[in-house]
């Protein structure tokens, strides 16, 4: 059996178990014990050769590795790995890991055991985990970040040129005459009321002429009739 000899609280402690000098090994059951106040079981695995069935059975302060060949498989000879276990160092102290029981059975079904006093054990020295010293509250606070060297940009300066006057709404010249100047009337042409009067006089002259003609005709007819 091999065990991590020393650790710090919180570290992993590895344990590996093996049987040496076996002859015609068909099945086995190996139990190890540990101090649960100083070690906490984490995981385990059977590492026996293929061609068989293995199981890890954890208990209160114990871990048992069970292994058996299958069917007519032949027994195993020589050094045989049994299994591994991982523990977490829980507190400072000296923890003992020991094999408390080993039972083996041959291919002929005959079992044998090993006396407890002949089983190995090993101590694990566990140291306390270092503590982080508290931060001294009297330390002055860190200076804040230096202010920027360039001052902030001020508001934009007032414009040097006064703003342009809005476009004047008053016309620069008088309104454009929209009425077309009438051309002077042609010579001899009547305009306005005179033209209208001329038309009226012309009508009267025509009517007078008609009356004169009618009067002459009537006078001739009377002369003829008197004859």
UniProtKB/TrEMBL annotation:
Cell division: present as a keyword of the record? no
Q: Which GO terms describe its biological process?
A: polysaccharide catabolic process
Membrane-traversing stretches: 199-219
* Residue stretches making up the Cohesin domain: 5-109
Q: Name one GO molecular function term.
A: carbohydrate binding
Q: Which SUPFAM superfamilies match?
A: Carbohydrate-binding domain (SSF49384)
InterPro entries, per the entry: CBM2/CBM3_carb-bd_dom_sf (IPR008965), Cohesin_dom (IPR002102)
From start to end residue, where is composition biased (Low complexity)? 166-188
- Kindly list the organism's lineage: Bacteria, Bacillati, Actinomycetota, Actinomycetes, Micrococcales
Region labeled Disordered — which residues?
130-188
Q: Where is the composition biased (Pro residues)?
A: 131-154
Protein name, please? Cohesin domain-containing protein
What keywords tag this UniProt record? Membrane, Transmembrane, Transmembrane helix
């Amino acid at each position: 059996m091999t065990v991590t000899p020393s650790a710090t609280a919180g570290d992993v402690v590895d344990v590996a178990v093996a049987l040496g000098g076996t002859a015609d090994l068909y099945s086995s059951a190996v139990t190890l014990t540990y101090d649960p106040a100083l070690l906490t079981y984490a995981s385990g695995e059977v590492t026996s050769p293929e061609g068989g069935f293995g199981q890890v059975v954890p208990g209160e302060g114990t871990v048992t590795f069970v292994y058996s060949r299958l069917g007519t498989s032949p027994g195993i000879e020589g050094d045989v790995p049994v299994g591994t276990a991982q523990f977490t160092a829980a507190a400072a102290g000296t923890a003992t890991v020991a094999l408390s029981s080993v039972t083996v059975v041959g291919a002929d079904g005959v079992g044998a055991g090993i006396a407890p006093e002949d089983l190995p054990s090993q101590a694990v020295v566990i140291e306390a985990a270092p503590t982080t010293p508290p931060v001294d509250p009297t330390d002055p606070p860190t200076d804040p970040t230096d202010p920027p060297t360039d001052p902030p940009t001020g508001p934009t300066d007032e414009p040097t040129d006064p703003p342009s006057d809005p476009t004047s709404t008053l016309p620069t010249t008088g309104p454009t005459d929209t009425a077309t100047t009438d051309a002077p009337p042609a010579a001899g042409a009547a305009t306005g009321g005179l033209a209208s009067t001329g038309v009226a006089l012309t009508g009267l002259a025509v009517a007078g002429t008609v009356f004169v003609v009618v009067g002459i005709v009537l006078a001739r007819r009377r002369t003829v009739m008197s004859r």
